[in-house]
Amino acid sequence: MGGMTVIIDPTSVRDLAAMNDEMGVLTVYATADPRDKSASPAWRLAVGNAIGALRSGAADDGDRERRAAVLDRLDRLQPEIESVLDAGESGVGRALFAPVSRDEVHTLNVQMPLDDCAVLERRPYLRPLAGALTLGAPAGVLAVSHEGVRVIDLRFGVAREVTRLAFDLDTDDWRSMRGPASLAQSGSPSRGANQLDRFDRRVEDNLQRYLASVRPRLSAIADEHGWQSVAATGDRRLIDVVRKGLSTSPARRDVVLLDRVVESLSTNEIAALVRPELEEDRRRRCRVLAEQARDAARSGGPGTTGISDTLGAFRENRVAHLVLDGTRELRGQRTSDGRYYPHGERPPGESDAAMAEESDLGERMIEMGYTSGAAVTMLPPEAAGVLAEEDGVAALLRW
User: Fold this and answer.
1) What is the pTM of this model?
2) How many CA atoms lie within 13 A of 279 on its CB side?
3) Which domain holds residue 323?
């Protein structure tokens, strides 16, 4: 795809959230369904219809300057839009962000679903991206075997082998323990079997010592790549050795154990094997986070629930982590200087006539979260029930 490619990390997402254009920012999301082999796949039609609706809305705009600017920009963006809608392009999920008043274009693609929509607002539409950041967050896979450890990075549906930590053992001085020659000399099958057992135990002991020795390096790799979860696969005795090192890492990281040796599989095959376990872990983490924010608010600690208190914390720049049910439609109002309030609240000195309607408070909170440096978690349906009585909104606070 053309334009400037966005690398999904906190800095680039914060930059996107800060993009602002009074004429509008065009946001396009598409999820290429590989199962739809038709000439006009449904996802392409859905996005094309959404862009057509934006064009029709712009043509009816009473502001002649804005009408001309939007229509001209849509025309000039046609090659980039076609690239997003090209079934032959790489990436399951694609996105485009382009301000009307400037020539810049930002694109991204990920190997996970996003949405099928086109939006023209003053800022980029970030909700689908926030969902991808929650459910496609960086995770690690440690494929442990008698060969050592294969270290794999998995993020946003893409698996990449980072390194291999090979277990090399020199057994030349163990000849008397290997069995066949000694067995022939001794003439005793039981003695030969014991020697083989001793050899295998010694190899196993050395392997476990090796795995214990690389735990600091594995923890450093996990920190460097920002892994929130790590899946360790292999023989239970071996992955237990690795887990003990990772369990001393910050509490934010979960370790999932899969008692299955996968050394012979490809990187993508290993990723496919562990992905359901990691996705389940991410859903569990979302639920725990929502419970943590809710319980902190109820006990008078550093947390809020509900629209009113969470917006108040945003106005005071106290939000460290926003937790939001992305399926909720939250409406409210906005002051002339850009502060947000729920319906029924009006700040001192503001008249009702001065308050503007805000149709998507959830999106505005996502923007405020990213631009203020807060983390944002979009709750999957399995976790959203925790905040069912709290407007689907909560936050952990800085203080």
Assistant:
1) 0.87
2) 13
3) 302-397
